[in-house]
Amino acid sequence: MVAEIAKNIPPFPLVREVLGKVYPVADIMVCSATPIEALEREWAEHNFRQYVRIIAGQEMGSKAQHLSIVSNGKYDKDKIIMLGDALGDLDAARKKGVHFYPIIPGSEEASWKRFYDEAFDKFIAGRYEGDYEEKMIEEFQKCLPDHPVWQRN
Predict the structure, then answer these.
(1) CB–CB of 20/28 below 8 Å?
(2) Which of 103, 115, 150, 152 could form an S-S bond across to 119 if both were Cys, CB 3.0 to 4.6 Å?
(3) pTM as predicted
(4) Comparing C-alpha atoms, which of 44, 17, 43, 46 is closest to residue 30?
(5) Where are the alpha helices (DSSP H) in 23-145?
(6) More confident residue, 73 or 38
(7) Residue 20: enclosing H or E segment and its boundaries?
């Protein structure tokens, strides 16, 4: 059903530009709990597949296991940044000791713009870690509800 329903859903603005900026200087990997078939289809549908080195779906394990593919000797951990929109993404990044940049739910366009305009440049220059990254994570955590909608009275 997902293949029939999830068609012609455009990506957030600036995602294509971000991929175009990152691709020439870094390897890109998709880490997702979505089945690989759906990921491959969606990334191809938007002509994004050309930018990605690896697409890791649920069949390849958890997001932390996906990060293990690149963080166990292939790349220095300080040269890896995970972009994500959920606490599970932040947890996976922390578990593997890599950087995290949040795509803030409800503020996705602004998040992608900030990554394009400043965060990626800071990361490449080695100036992302520390106060800047912590500020991004704090902002992300503040926007998340204390309790999911289905647990509220």
Answers:
(1) no
(2) 115
(3) 0.88
(4) 43
(5) 36-45, 63-71, 87-96, 108-114, 120-124, 131-143
(6) 38
(7) helix 15-22
